[in-house]
Structure to design on (195 residues):
């Protein structure tokens, strides 16, 4: 997942957003974004298949949840610190996850926390590589801690957020909701500039 995102980060230009990647594919061009989507869905299928005892429908919802979560965090990573701050909130929901089933969780959570200051101060950025890994880990963690109905609900919410991101953008939604706007702006460089 990280490698597929890194390739998308390193290739200059190209289409952005799922809709534009689909247009590229329809016209016969395979973008790095489409390759990333294929890798993401394949990784989600394998990761969910390796998890113990859930019905086929819940596993399908789990694949949707994991893939859609990875793309949500990719969509959040357009302003300094945003993706990491929202990830740290999501990680709080994963306290009960069985680390034997998701051994990468502590490393991703601690790495994110360590990177927050650098991201907020615009000295480093997650890019697709880091944001997709964050979202993928969160989606898989939610699959492991939520009951069956919660997996279905979380998958529906993640898909809805992706649809919003493709239409009105997540930045517009966050800027329109005062508590989200305040949370999103906290700690950024512009907070320290005189007004």
């Amino acid at each position: 997942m990280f490698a597929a995102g890194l390739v998308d980060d390193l290739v200059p230009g190209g289409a952005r957003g799922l809709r534009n990647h689909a247009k590229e594919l329809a016209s016969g061009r395979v973008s790095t974004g489409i390759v990333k989507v294929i890798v993401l869905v394949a990784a989600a299928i394998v990761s969910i298949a390796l998890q113990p005892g859930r019905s086929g429908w819940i596993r399908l919802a789990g694949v949707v949840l994991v893939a859609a979560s990875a793309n949500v965090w990719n969509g959040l990573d357009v302003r300094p610190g945003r993706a990491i701050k929202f990830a740290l909130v999501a990680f709080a929901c994963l306290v009960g996850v069985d680390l034997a089933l998701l051994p990468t969780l502590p490393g991703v959570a601690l790495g994110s926390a360590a990177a927050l200051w650098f991201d907020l101060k615009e000295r480093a950025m997650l890019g697709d590589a880091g944001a997709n890994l964050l979202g993928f880990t969160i989606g898989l963690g939610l699959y492991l801690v939520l009951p069956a109905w919660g997996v279905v609900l979380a998958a529906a919410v993640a898909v809805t957020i992706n649809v919003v991101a493709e239409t009105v953008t997540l930045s517009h939604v966050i800027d329109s909701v005062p508590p989200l706007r305040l949370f999103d702006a906290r700690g950024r460089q512009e907070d320290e500039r005189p007004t």
Q: What stands out?
A: DSSP finds eleven helices and no strands in the chain. The chain has one domain: 2-192. The first helix runs from residue 2 to 10.
